[in-house]
From TrEMBL:
Pfam families: SnoaL_2. This is Nuclear transport factor 2 family protein. It comes from Pelagerythrobacter rhizovicinus. InterPro entries: NTF2-like_dom_sf (IPR032710), SnoaL-like (IPR037401). Residues 45-148 form the SnoaL-like domain.
Length: 181
């Protein structure tokens, strides 16, 4: 009977510990949900800025972000940094365009640290022919920045533009003129 208070104290500690774990898990879930919504909203705002010509999703790229273009297009590979991606894909793409691409978001999905953007984008190439494509970007985010991206799009449409139109224009600013990359 003398050890009864000790068992009761141990039981209380275990109960309080279990409650604290449940609270901590709930807080983590709320934080995760908050981060999901925050990331989704940041990406939504960046697409709206792109649509209006005042910015782009590339503004969210961390300097050391990797960008992978999947598939077999002429630009398909992993670009290890924001600068590499902008210089090797975005600037040459924009140099082929007469008017900027304008996106139309179909859907944004967010889970954990990832936002998936499903959208169409269209513009006019320098040869006055239309360019349009449908894209899916999988964007992994940390602290409000894109740290890793995987892009899926119609590589036939992309390659056709890349081969048909020479990269001649250099007056387009990368943050304002955004291809689907």
């Amino acid at each position: 009977m003398a050890d009864h208070p000790f068992r009761w104290a141990a039981s209380c500690r275990a109960f309080v510990g279990a409650i604290l774990m449940v609270i901590a898990q709930g807080t983590a879930a709320q934080t995760g949900a908050h981060d999901e919504e925050r990331n989704r909203e940041l990406v939504a705002q960046s697409f709206e800025a792109w649509r209006t010509g005042s910015g782009s999703p590339y503004d969210l790229l961390a300097s050391d972000a990797s960008w992978t273009i999947t598939g077999n297009s002429l630009a398909a590979k992993t670009y290890p940094t924001k600068d590499a991606f902008i210089e090797e894909v975005i600037r040459p793409f924009n140099a082929r365009m007469k008017s900027r691409l304008v996106p139309k978001v179909r859907k944004l999905y967010a889970e954990d640290d990832t936002v998936v953007a499903f959208f169409d984008a269209a513009g006019t190439a320098s040869d006055d022919r239309p360019y349009s494509n449908t894209y899916v970007w999988i964007l992994e985010m940390t602290d409000g920045q894109i740290v890793r991206a995987h892009a899926f799009f119609d590589s036939i449409a992309f390659d056709e533009l890349w081969r048909r139109v020479p990269a001649e224009r250099s007056d387009i600013v990368a943050s304002q003129e955004v291809p689907g990359g």
